[in-house]
């Protein structure tokens, strides 16, 4: 995972932990209303509490297992984790730029693709000038690697 991805996970964890006291207050207020068997507010707050606690455990687990790699400290002439890759479609000459990142920080709309994605797997260990078949929504297409940067 990149340092940016780790920082976003930490921010999300901090935000979720601030939700805990709010939900405890909601549960307390719902308990004061009486009969819990048909108390919608109580069951709703308990469900939210369970989802938040599960999400907190998930993020803490990810943070405990991740290896942080700063792409700006990398170099080389092959596509690896953290690389920013400029591709040109060999049929249309349309260029696209992707950064290969960890799964939790992937966002295709921002040009950040997961290292586990089919496109990233096809690009790994390739060099500038290589033509690579990558999957696409209309079937496989061939792209040429125009540039590899580490930023």
Topology of helices and strands:
Elements: H1 3-32, H2 40-65, E1 84-89, E2 95-101, E3 112-114, H3 118-123, E4 131-134, E5 141-149
Parallel strand pairs: 2-3
Antiparallel strand pairs: 1-2, 1-5, 4-5
Describe the structure.
- The structure is a single chain.
- This protein is of the alpha+beta class and 151 residues long.
- The chain has 2 domains: 3-65, Orthogonal Bundle (Helix Hairpins); 71-149, Transcription elongation factor, GreA/GreB, C-terminal domain (Chitinase A, domain 3).
- It is 41% helix and 19% strand.
- It is built from 3 helices and 5 strands; from the N terminus they run ααβββαββ.
- It has helices at residues 3-32, 40-65, 118-123, and strands at residues 84-89, 95-101, 112-114, 131-134, 141-149.
- A 5-stranded mixed sheet has the order 3-2-1-5-4.
- Helix 1 (3-32) runs antiparallel to helix 2.
- The longest helix is centred in the N-terminal third of the chain and has 30 residues, at 3-32.
- The protein is elongated.
- It starts with a helix and ends with a strand.
Quick synopsis:
The protein has 151 residues and is of the alpha+beta class. The protein has two domains: 3-65, Helix Hairpins (Orthogonal Bundle), CATH 1.10.287.180; 71-149, Chitinase A, domain 3, CATH 3.10.50.30.
